[in-house]
Structure formats: C-alpha cells, structure tokens
Specification:
The protein is mainly alpha-helical and 510 residues long. The chain has two domains: 21-56 and 94-386, no CATH class; 399-509, no CATH class. It contains 21 helices and four strands. It has helices at 11-16, 24-49, 59-73, 96-134, 139-153, 161-181, 190-200, 205-225, 230-244, 252-261, 281-297, 303-318, 323-341, 347-353, 358-388, 399-408, 421-426, 445-453, 458-467, 480-487, 506-509; strands spanning 413-416, 470-475, 491-496, 501-505. The chain has a four-stranded mixed sheet, with helices on both faces. A hairpin with a 4-residue loop joins strand 3 and strand 4. Helix 12 (303-318) runs antiparallel to helix 13 (323-341). The radius of gyration is 26 Å and the shape is globular. The relative contact order is 0.13.
Length: 510
C-alpha cells in the first residue's frame, strides 16, 4: 500500500478514489466534501420550495426586456426609450451581461428557466462560502456558518443582476483576501473576473476598495513572511480600473455607479433605505450575536481586517440592500482570524484526528459514493423543481389590468405605481416611472411623485396629469391615488382586480 503524506492530496483526488484509510487528511477531505455537497443540496432544494420569492421584484421584468433588446438589436442603448417622461435622456444599460443572461434563461425556459438559473447561482454561492470556510475551520462549524450566512442574505435572492453577480463578486473578494492573508502576490486571473463583474453589476467599484484593503493586509502579513511581491500588488491595483472599463460604455460605467446612490428616486426605494432593526429582527439578532462572540471569546482582529469589517457594517447599516455583502464576506473575515487565534477549531487541527473512531473511518470509506448520490439528488431535484414549478411574477405584473386598458382603447401616456414600471416595460408600454433610478426621474420629479401620495396631494397629481398628457392610470387597489382619481372630474374607473385599478380619461376613451 502506498503511503500518502499529509498535505499532498487534493479534495478532488480524495473524492475520486484515494483510499480513506491511507491518511487522516484524506479522510478529512472526503468528509469535508460530503458535508459541503449535502449542505448545498439541502439549502438549495429547500429554497426551491419557495420559488415565488425570486419573482417578487418588479425590476426583473425590465431587466429581461433590456437584455432581449440588446440581444436582438446587437447594440447598446445610450438614451432612455422605455419611459414617456424622460424619453431621450441619457441612460445606459450598465448591467447588460446580467440582463442578457436573464433574458436567455427566460427565452429558453420561461419563468421556470429563470427559477433554474437562480437555484444554480445559489448552489454555486453556497459551495463557495462553505469551501472557503471549511478550509479554515472544522467542516461542521463551516456548514453551520454557511447556512447562517445564506439564510440572512436570502432576502435579496431575487431574479435580478445582483444575484447573478454574487459568485463572481465572491470569487474576486475572497480570492484576493486569501492571497493577502497568506502574504502572496495577487492572482492576476482575478483581473478578468473584475472585467466580468463590471459588465454584470454596478457593485464592481466595491472591488476597488477590497483590492486596496487586501493590499494593506498583504503589507501587514509581509512583515512576518518577508514577501517580495509588493510590486505585483501595485501593478494589480493599477490594472483593476483598467479591467473594469473593458465595457461597452467604458469609463461611463464607473460614473453610473455613483449616479445610482445620488438619484432623487433612491430615498423612496425600500432597498436603498437604512437598516431597520424592527423590519429585520433576525439580522439584528445576528449582528448582536457577532458582537457577543467578540466579547466572550476575546477574538481580536488586526487593524486592516477590522477596517474591512467596519466598511461592510457601514454599507449594510446605510443601505439595507447590502445585507448580502455583510453576511457573505464578514463570516470569512472572522474565520481567518479565529482559525489562527484558536487552532483547536481550525481545519488542520481537526484533519489530524479525522477518522479516529471506527464510525468515522467507515463513513470516510464510503463518502465518495455518498457524495455522488447527494450530487445526483441535488441535480435531479433542481431539474424537477424547475420543471414542475408554477411560479410567476404575479404580484408585480398586473397583466390583466394592462390588457384591459388596451382593450378599452387607452393607448396614450400612463401614470403608474412605481412597482408596476417593470411590467409596463415588459409589455412595451412607456412608463411614467420605473426602477431605473440612475440619471432618470430627476429635477424634483421623485418629490412630486411622493407628494401625490401625501395628504392634500390631489393638486400635485392633477398637475402631473396635465404636464405629461396622461390618459390612463395604473395603481394598486389600496393606493390613495385611486380614490383621488375616482373623484377627479373627467376620469372613469374601467377595471379593477386584486392587483391593480385602471382609470381612463373619459374624453380619450370615448
């Protein structure tokens, strides 16, 4: 029998047939891989049950439409062609790659295709987080923390560009941080990853901050490891912005990320509001639990890691949408520090004794077969769940109301509820307002919309109707503007259901 030295067997080789009795590390890797496969299958198939959640955001509809338009026209938009209020104003599809991917999934499989895409992405995300954590701490701890991370990030698991970019984002962030922690040169393969990230989602400028923090962490590690790769880090930092502007819109894509946060519409969008402990009670508990861990264990972080954690915390508390950044990255930062300060929980320490008991040895022997069975179960479950599901964006897609307005002859300009903007674009109807916050709907426009919802907003609503030559409206039943339009001279309610109410101007309909 060949003797295998610890540290020489990769997880993949151990899975593919190296005997589990050869060395503790091989048994550890087999058990580690099985736990990861089982964790991924359980989490993803569990999330497939609530497939409707992925279609609850109205922006998904316009992302698919824009992706289809880019694909069919083989060109990229430079001005708004989807609203009647800001038609012709400069606007770019900065997330074009994600939009084309969403369109492709919808084209090939309808809403089931979109669901399948989301579940595959989440599978990759679970595997990524677990893989990094289980390389630092014991697999059982890594599995628990991964499940915790996914559960608290799942509020933003919607069929939108930012769910598609998460694996790319983590590949860049965790790969760069790992190199820094080990005192190594940055992997230059991450530059193409930055390029892909920039073309998929506007969050890529966060990568610039991560690169800078990673470089500072490398300098800290360099004092101990005496690495001479500083010049490679400087070159990487210089090339990051260059990689990001390999984009149809060039440097304009960078400026557009700033314009989103500065948009007048942003303060009125729930995901761009500050973190609320009343609204996200489990997230509040998680934040307090993390503070408790630091207090009880006396875990300390170096200055750079602490700065990174503070940045993530600030971003999350400032804008609730960044929950996914905090709960996917922060646990890894803490795990790097904990594995060094408390070796007893580290993967290396656990691997030394893996398989000491007869049960562990027997389990490790059959782990490859069990892992294969779990992977088959996961794949079959994914296909079946995506095939038989009957989910669709019903809550944000008032298709019957839009069709009723068309049947009645209301073909002019519409004034609509913000959450119905995506559906109108999907139905090729120019919107009054929609989710494309950057550059559009400026000049006090968002404030005027807000006033129409306030007490005494009848005058503002009437002024907007005249200013934009509105001929019909689309609002949800509980919206106060429905009552205003019911009592507004010259307007008539022609349709209502559980999703939407349609009013038309009598003169335009007759």
């Amino acid at each position: 029998m060949d003797i295998v030295q610890p540290g020489t067997i990769s997880p993949w080789r151990s899975l593919m047939g190296v005997k589990a009795t050869m060395a503790p590390e091989i048994r550890a890797q087999r058990i580690r891989i099985f736990i990861g496969a089982a964790l991924t299958a359980v989490i993803v198939l569990g999330m497939a049950v609530d497939g409707a959640r992925y279609f609850s955001d109205p922006d998904m509809l316009w992302h698919i439409t824009v992706g289809g338009d880019i694909w069919h026209s083989k060109s990229f938009p430079h001005v708004d062609a989807y609203s009647h209020t800001f038609a012709g104003v400069p606007w770019i599809a900065k997330e074009w790659l994600s939009q084309i991917i969403l369109f492709a999934a919808y084209s090939m499989g309808g809403w089931n295709g979109v669901l399948f895409l989301c579940l595959v992405v989440i599978s990759i995300l679970v595997a990524q987080i677990y893989s990094v954590l289980s390389g630092l701490i014991q697999p059982t701890y890594a599995a628990a923390i991964t499940a915790f991370s996914i559960a608290l990030s799942s509020d933003v698991f919607l069929a939108r560009p930012y769910i598609l970019v998460l694996p790319v984002l983590l590949w860049f962030v965790l790969g760069l941080w790992d190199a820094a922690q080990k005192g190594k040169a940055p992997p230059f393969l991450l530059l193409p990853v930055m390029c892909v990230w920039a073309n998929m989602h506007a969050s890529f400028t966060f990568g610039f901050m991560v690169a800078a923090l990673s470089f500072m962490s490398f300098l800290y590690q360099r004092r101990q490891l005496r690495s001479s790769d500083t010049y490679k880090w400087l070159l990487f930092l210089a090339l990051c912005p260059v990689a990001s502007i390999i984009h149809p819109y060039g440097v304009e894509a960078i400026w557009s990320t700033v314009s989103v946060a500065q948009s007048e519409l942003t303060p009125y969008i729930s995901e761009w509001t500050a973190f609320s402990a009343q609204q996200f009670i489990f997230a509040e508990f998680a934040l307090l639990a993390i503070l408790g861990v630091f207090a009880v264990t006396r875990l300390h972080l170096d200055l750079v890691t602490a700065a990174f954690l503070c940045l993530l915390t600030h971003m999350y508390l400032q804008y609730a949408r960044f929950v996914y950044l905090f709960f996917t990255i922060a646990p890894v930062l803490i795990a790097y520090a904990a594995s060094k300060q408390f070796p007893v929980i580290s993967f290396e320490k656990w691997a030394e004794k893996a398989g000491d008991s007869a049960i562990e040895r027997a389990f490790a022997r059959y782990a490859p077969v069990l892992t294969g069975a779990v992977v088959i179960l996961w794949a079959a479950g994914l296909v079946i769940a995506s095939s038989i599901a009957n989910f669709a964006p019903t809550k944000t897609y008032p298709a019957a109301a839009i069709q009723a307005a068309r049947d009645y002859g209301a073909t002019g300009n519409v004034i609509n509820y913000y959450n119905f903007g995506g559906a109108l674009i999907f139905e090729r109807t120019p919107t009054f307002v929609d989710g494309r916050a950057e550059r559009l709907f400026q000049g006090g426009f968002a404030d005027k919309i807000a006033k129409t919802r306030a007490i005494g907003g009848e005058k503002t609503l009437s002024d907007l109707i005249e200013e934009y030559d509105i001929e019909w409206s689309l609002y949800p039943p509980g919206d106060g503007r429905v009552t205003v339009l019911d009592n507004m001279p010259g307007w008539k309610r022609i349709y209502e259901d559980e999703l939407a109410v349609v009013h038309v101007r009598k003169a335009s309909a007759e």
